[in-house]
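Reading a protein record of the kind used here takes only a little practice. To see the layout at work, look at the sequence and tokens printed below.
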Amino acid sequence: MLGLVRAAWGRPVGTAFADDLCSSDPNEIVRIATFNYVHVVVASAFDRAPDLTGSVPGDLVVYFREMQAANLQRNRAIFDQLRSVGAVFAAEGMQGVVLKGGAELLDPIFPDPAFRFLGDLDILVPEADIDQAVARLRGDGAHPIEISEIDRRHHQNVDPLVRPDWPVPVELHRNLGQGELRSLLAADADAGTACPTAAAALVVPSAPYRLARAVQHSQLQPPRYRDGLLSLRDTIELEMMQS
């Protein structure tokens, strides 16, 4: 999988990689790619290194190309959702700092708009505006997904909001970490140094805060730190940010 990700980025993988790929289980390739949220990247490996297509079943290549195309369409729909949320904020005189994947949609660092898979939209909102933002979005048809009291305790965001026509939930954050991690990044400093975007009432963190937030979320946040989990998507994103 590391070789496929390298190939997708146009980097050399060595002459022995094709043999290694040929001896790999296609089902495991799909499983690992999907678990790591890079199933939307792998198709570019076969585009940039077409000789690799002979090392895997043809339907595997088709699968990854379909996943990439579908994610491009999905990201466009999420972008429209993000702009509609921004319009609500603008109407209420509020501003939100869009984090993580949403920031990628507004201020891309990935070379291909299909390369980033999003599970939700994370938006940092000033504490004084949280209740108003939730009420306004609920008035527009959104409703919360209730989470357990254990998960809610010390959590950095309110219950996720969903709407039938939204591709992903919206999570409004009141700070940038849970538990002890809250002291690592100050929400007000992040908001104060944020950069404007073309979307109304939505800004993105400055480059240092965006990188720091990625490190915090992907490397320090429980259970990732506790369980030693590594995400290839996060690894790619961190490299893109550092460069």
